[in-house]
Design a protein that fits this description.
CATH architecture: 3-Layer(aba) Sandwich
Shape: globular
Number of helices: 6
Strand content: 5-15%
CATH superfamily: Response regulator
CATH class: Alpha Beta
Structural class: mainly alpha
Radius of gyration: 14 Å
CATH topology: Rossmann fold
Strand order of the largest sheet: 1-2
Number of domains: 1
Helix content: 40-55%
Length: 147
């Protein structure tokens, strides 16, 4: 799961997918990262943590990190939250096989639309709920597809 700072959208997606995978007894390695280094070492935004907790998902222990080329070796799927981060991740791809791993997360819900998950960072708490619901639906599709 990749967004810009790795403190709002991608940790929410990370936590939601971990929660769903655990519920399905799936032994998956799930992680999140940001394309920027701005929040490295920080926990998720408090509003994201509070929002996730409302739905029974605990993301409080996640720590922001920057996406690296090594992530292509570590993960089979890489889900970008928006077009900017999608492009930034693709720039780090070594080859076509790496590029094939990268997908816009909302394309799971609305294939081919390339819709972005809005960044709730500069908005109110309602934005986090809206983002949570979008990511919850997308993560359900991930479970359905990869289970």
């Amino acid at each position: 799961m990749v967004c810009l700072g790795n403190i709002c959208r991608s940790p929410l997606a990370d936590g939601i997918l971990r929660f769903k995978a655990k519920h399905e007894n799936l032994d998956w390695i799930i992680d999140s990262a940001g394309t920027s280094h701005w929040h490295q070492g920080e926990n998720p935004d408090a509003r994201a943590t509070t929002c996730a907790k409302k739905y029974g998902v605990d993301i409080s222990g996640l720590v922001a990190r920057q996406f690296t080329k090594n992530d292509f070796d570590e993960f089979d799927k890489i889900y970008a939250m928006d077009t900017s981060n999608y492009r930034d991740v693709l720039k780090l791809a070594a080859d076509e096989a790496d590029k094939q791993k990268v997908e816009m997360i909302l394309n799971l819900v609305e294939p081919g639309k390339n819709k972005s998950v809005p960044d709730p960072y500069f908005g109110g708490e309602d934005g986090f709920d809206e983002v949570y619901k979008m990511l919850d639906e997308a993560c359900e599709k991930i479970i359905e597809q990869l289970k």
